[in-house]
Amino acid sequence: MAAAAASRAAGRLLSPRLLIASRHLQASASEGSARDASTSFIHPAAVVHPDAAIGQGVTIGPFCTVGASARIGDACQLHTGSHVTGHTELGEGCVVHTGAILGADLPGRTIIGENNVIGNYAVVGVKCQDLKYKPGDECFLRIGNNNEIREYCSIHRSSKPCDCTVIGDNNLIMGSCHVAHDCKIGSNNIFANNTLFGGHVIVEVSNHFTVITSTFS
């Protein structure tokens, strides 16, 4: 009971703010599209679906792909060969480095807040590895603002429609870390290289930056 209550509380940590951020992003991105984002640069070698919502001042490099349901906020940078797919929302000022993959063509949604940095070949918002996941179920990931998610990290969506993987604000998630389905990660944490979180792990908000290096499940 206590664990369930803590999980619900952690899940509510970001929901109101991210809902507002999502609405703001939709309003901003609706002003532009893959065809009329006049102040954005889309490299000729990028593949951007005409229905994708692209904000102002966005840079999309060569060999990137942006799916039909993606929403890219103002001043985002997609470096060479990065991919945004499925129902994925990227807030203003995010930087997505080479080879990173955001989202998946699955029911559900990935919401990433503002000023986040996604490292090379990170995989964020993909299907979980939990065998309880049922194909066709909605699954969710919400990430706050000002996080740095370094190279080769993997962050998975929830395993059930009634849950959500949540990451707060101002976290440094170093290279090759893993955050599994339904985790609730607070704010102001530092996860050292190769830190692994199994499903449903809760890390509270830290008033001071906390360095964690271990395996949890």
Automatic annotation (TrEMBL):
<protein>
    <recommendedName>
        <fullName>Acyl-[acyl-carrier-protein]--UDP-N-acetylglucosamine O-acyltransferase, mitochondrial</fullName>
    </recommendedName>
</protein>
<dbReference type="Pfam" id="PF00132">
    <property type="entry name" value="Hexapep"/>
</dbReference>
<dbReference type="GO" id="GO:0008780">
    <property type="term" value="F:acyl-[acyl-carrier-protein]-UDP-N-acetylglucosamine O-acyltransferase activity"/>
</dbReference>
<dbReference type="InterPro" id="IPR001451">
    <property type="entry name" value="Hexapep"/>
</dbReference>
<dbReference type="InterPro" id="IPR011004">
    <property type="entry name" value="Trimer_LpxA-like_sf"/>
</dbReference>
<dbReference type="GO" id="GO:0008610">
    <property type="term" value="P:lipid biosynthetic process"/>
</dbReference>
<dbReference type="InterPro" id="IPR010137">
    <property type="entry name" value="Lipid_A_LpxA"/>
</dbReference>
